[in-house]
Each structure stands twice: as structure tokens, then as C-alpha cells.
Design goal:
By secondary structure, the protein is mainly alpha-helical. It contains 7 helices and no strands. It has one domain. It is a multi-pass membrane protein.
Length: 204
């Protein structure tokens, strides 16, 4: 059961009207919205592929933009934490090292996901017509679905614990929610792309 009183006390440390906090929330929400809208537009129109001369070049360009936006998001997240009070009871070595361990696990999932999928597999190559031959089932996909997203969430969670930051924990919850919504939109759409591929193969 959730201790509601403890949650209220925890988030009593957070000023949700602070400009830095609002900017962090907006940057977190914007990123998955941006790449889903752009990737679906590309899948429908092939406009980016035409502009950049090939689907691969267009995918690399979108991937670069996503990486920059993720850096901006992380910067906003960190600045929002620094502008808000720490939870004194958590400002100890055990919290710091627990956060460090969680961040390390999250980083492992993110890096191993990237290595398993490759650049185009990571950055929505499916939407550009760059399809994988078969579903990736090796680590970390053998452990959980969408390890890139949940690994990234774990990194933010660990970072928040390392800073004993209630604001960071609340922002991490926003990250988790934004990724959950992204998965709900991306999963069925990606599956449909591969269903169409299979139909094309069978019809030949």
C-alpha cells in the first residue's frame, strides 16, 4: 500500500510552479511527442527521405535531433533539481550509492539496447522503411520489453536519488508516464509495419 501521507510530505518539497520545473516537464513531454509525430509523418509521406536523398540519411538526421533533444531534457531535469530543496533525510551515502547503482543498471540497459538494435533500429528506422530481418530477443530484450525506455527512466531515478531530490523523483514519474504513453502509440504502429512487410513477402 502507498503511504499517502509520506507522499504528500515528499512532494511538499516540490514547487511545481517554479519555471525550471515547468520547463523540465515540458521538455520531458515534448520529446516522445516530437519523434512519434515526425516518424509517423515520414512513414506516411516519405518527405524526409526525399529531402535527405535516402531513408537512411533521413533516419540518421532524426536520430541526431533526438539525441540533442535528450541532452536538453537531461539539462532541464538537472537544473530543475538543483533549484529545489533536497530531502535532508535522504542526503546520505547509502542513498547516493543506491542511486548510483540504479543509474548504472539503467545505463547498461540503454547501451545494450542500442548495441542490439543499431542506430536505425534505435531511432525509428522502421518508420523510414529500414526494417529489421527479425525481432531482437537477445539481452536486454530477453529481460524486459522496451529496455531503452525503462533504462532511461532508471537513470533519471538514480540521478534523483543521488541528489536526494523530491523534484527529481516527481520528474522521473513524468518520464515514466511519457514513455508509457509512447509505448502505447508506438507498439501497435510498429507491429502493423511488420505485418504489412509479412503480407508483402507472402504475396510475392
Amino acid at each position: 500500500q502507498v503511504d499517502v501521507a509520506a507522499m504528500v510530505r515528499l512532494f511538499g518539497y516540490v514547487d511545481v510552479t517554479d519555471t525550471g520545473f515547468i520547463v523540465a516537464v515540458l521538455s520531458i513531454a515534448f520529446n516522445p511527442l516530437f519523434w512519434n509525430v515526425v516518424a509517423r509523418w515520414e512513414h506516411k509521406t516519405r518527405a524526409l527521405s526525399q529531402v535527405f536523398g535516402s531513408p537512411r540519411a533521413a533516419c540518421y538526421c532524426l536520430g541526431a535531433v533526438i539525441l540533442v533533444l535528450n541532452c536538453v531534457r537531461s539539462h532541464c531535469f538537472t537544473e530543475a533539481m538543483k533549484s529545489q530543496p533536497k530531502l535532508e533525510g535522504w542526503d546520505h551515502h547509502w542513498t547516493y550509492y543506491s542511486g548510483l547503482a540504479i543509474s548504472a543498471v539503467g545505463t547498461l540497459f540503454v547501451i545494450s539496447s542500442f548495441l542490439a538494435l543499431g542506430f536505425t533500429g534505435t531511432f525509428l528506422g522502421d518508420y523510414f522503411g529500414i526494417l529489421m530481418e527479425e525481432k531482437v530477443t537477445s539481452f536486454p530484450f530477453s529481460v524486459l520489453d522496451n529496455p531503452m525506455y525503462w533504462g532511461s527512466t532508471a537513470v533519471y531515478l538514480g540521478w534523483s536519488l543521488m541528489h536526494a531530490s523530491p523534484a527529481g523523483l516527481l520528474l522521473t514519474a513524468v518520464v515514466a508516464i511519457s514513455y508509457t504513453i509512447a509505448v502505447l502509440y508506438e507498439g501497435p504502429f510498429t507491429e502493423e509495419i511488420y505485418r504489412q512487410k509479412q503480407k508483402g513477402v507472402k504475396s510475392k
